[in-house]
Each structure stands twice: as C-alpha cells, then as structure tokens.
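Researcher: Quick test of sequence recovery. Tokens follow.
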C-alpha cells in the first residue's frame, strides 16, 4: 500500500514518466515469459538502477530495436517504480513496454519470471518468435543476441 501511495504522490507532484510502467505480479510475470506468447523475436531484459552492466545491455538492445522494426524489447526493472527507474531508461532512449515489480514479493515475481534465475543481473530472456526461449545472465554482445533470437547475420 505504501508503494502505491508513493507512486501516486510522485505522479501528483508532476513527475511524468515518458512511457508508462506496468506493475508486474506473479501472474503477469508468467504470461510475459511464456514463449508461446511471443510471435516475433522478443527481448525481455531484467535490470535494476544500481546495475552498471544492465545499462550496457539496455543500450545494445535499444540500438538493435531501432535498427530492426521486427524486433521487440520489453524491460523489467527488478525493483519498485521510482523516478530513477524512468530516467535510467529515458537517458538511453530505451523503447518498448516497461514493467516494474509490483505488490507481490520480489522473490515470487523473480521465480515467476524464470524459476532458474537466482537474482543475478543483468538477466535476459530471448524469444525467437517460434516458441523457443533462451535465458542468459550477464553482459551480451550483438552476435550472441542475434543468435539467441534466431536472427540471421545482417552481413
């Protein structure tokens, strides 16, 4: 309840986020990470504001999405909504749907996102649009990202 009050106060005080954030609970986390729900190549990037390596991945993903209109990016901040969360994504001009952890316990949301995930960040879920999913922890490169998404080499 305190989180909802804080969010309402931030919005009432004129803090406007460029793109709205959706609160993630266990149910929506499971739906978000269901490989059958992604009919085109999709990146689900799990990140936090205090993770410098997350920002490297987000920059790469933002550039890739800008260069390929068929690619979709979804970000999940592994923390509650704050002004810092929004400005971090806006600073890098990260497009796409944005989620933050909602009212369920962080552990329950994390488990619903990926039962094999142990909380390390960055964590990225790659969906190839054909029902396959690959989960990777750590900083990724463009070649490995394209391969995980089932995309051909652009050369």
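Model:
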């Amino acid at each position: 309840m305190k989180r909802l009050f804080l969010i309402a106060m931030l919005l009432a005080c004129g803090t406007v986020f460029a793109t709205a954030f959706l609160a993630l609970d266990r149910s929506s986390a499971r739906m978000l990470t269901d490989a059958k729900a992604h009919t085109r190549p999709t990146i689900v990037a799990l990140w936090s504001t205090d993770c410098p390596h997350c920002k490297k991945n987000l920059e790469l993903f933002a550039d890739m999405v800008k260069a390929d209109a068929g690619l979709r990016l979804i970000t999940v901040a592994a923390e509650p909504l704050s002004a810092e969360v929004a400005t971090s994504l806006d600073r890098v001009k990260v497009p796409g749907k944005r989620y933050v952890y909602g009212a369920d316990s962080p552990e329950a949301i994390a488990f619903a996102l990926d039962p094999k995930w142990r909380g390390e960040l960055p964590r990225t879920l790659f969906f190839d649009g054909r029902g396959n999913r690959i989960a990777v922890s750590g900083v990724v490169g463009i070649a490995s990202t394209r391969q995980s998404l089932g995309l051909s080499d652009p050369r």
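DSSP finds six helices and six strands in the chain.
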